[in-house]
Design goal:
Elements (H helix, E strand, L loop, with lengths): L5 H32 L4 H25 L4 H38 L4 H7 L11 H9 L3 H13 L5
Length: 160
C-alpha cells in the first residue's frame, strides 16, 4: 500500500512532528518554571514524562513511515492515535483549558476567593500571580494544533 500523494503525506508527518515538539517544549518549560517558582518538585517529574512521551510518540511516526506496508506500521499508527490524539487532547483539556484558561477567566472575572480555593486547591494550583507561568500555561493550547495534525496523519493513512 502506498500513499495517494506521498509528498502531502510526508508534509503532514513533518507538520505533526514540528507542532508536537513545540507543544511538548511549551509544556516542559511551563512545568519546570512552575516547579522552581512554586517549590513543587513534582512538576519536574511531569516535565520528564512529557519529554518521554513526546520522544515515544514521534518515534512511532518514524516506525509507521518506514513500515507502512506491514503490521508494525499499523500498530505504530494505532498507538500514535491513542497517544497523540486521544491522550494529548485530554491532557490539554485538563492541564490547559481547566487549569489555566478557566482559572484565569474565573479569577479575573471576579469569582469569590472561597469558590476559587474549592476549584483550585493549593498546592496543586496557584491562582494567577506570575505572568510567565500563566502565559506558558495558556500557550499549551498550541497542543491542539499538534492534535489536529496528528489526526490528519491518522486520517491520511493508506489503509482503513
Amino acid at each position: 500500500m502506498k500513499f495517494a500523494d506521498p509528498v502531502r503525506s510526508k508534509n503532514l508527518l513533518i507538520l505533526a512532528v514540528i507542532s508536537g515538539l513545540i507543544a511538548g517544549l511549551v509544556s516542559i518549560v511551563h512545568h519546570w518554571y512552575g516547579a522552581v517558582i512554586y517549590d513543587t518538585p513534582w512538576r519536574v517529574g511531569v516535565s520528564y514524562w512529557i519529554a518521554g512521551i513526546v520522544i515515544i510518540v514521534y518515534s512511532l511516526l518514524y516506525i509507521y513511515w518506514e513500515n507502512i506496508d506491514n503490521i508494525a506500521g499499523k500498530i505504530a499508527m494505532w498507538i500514535f492515535l491513542f497517544c497523540a490524539i486521544i491522550f494529548q487532547a485530554g491532557f490539554i483539556m485538563f492541564e490547559c483549558v481547566y487549569s489555566h484558561v478557566l482559572k484565569n477567566i474565573l479569577f479575573f472575572g471576579g469569582m469569590p476567593q472561597s469558590n476559587l480555593d474549592t476549584l483550585y486547591p493549593s498546592p496543586a494550583y496557584h491562582l494567577p500571580d506570575n505572568l510567565f507561568f500563566e502565559i506558558t500555561g495558556l500557550l499549551q493550547l498550541v497542543g491542539f494544533v499538534a492534535v489536529w495534525y496528528a489526526y490528519r496523519v491518522f486520517k491520511d493513512r493508506p489503509w482503513v
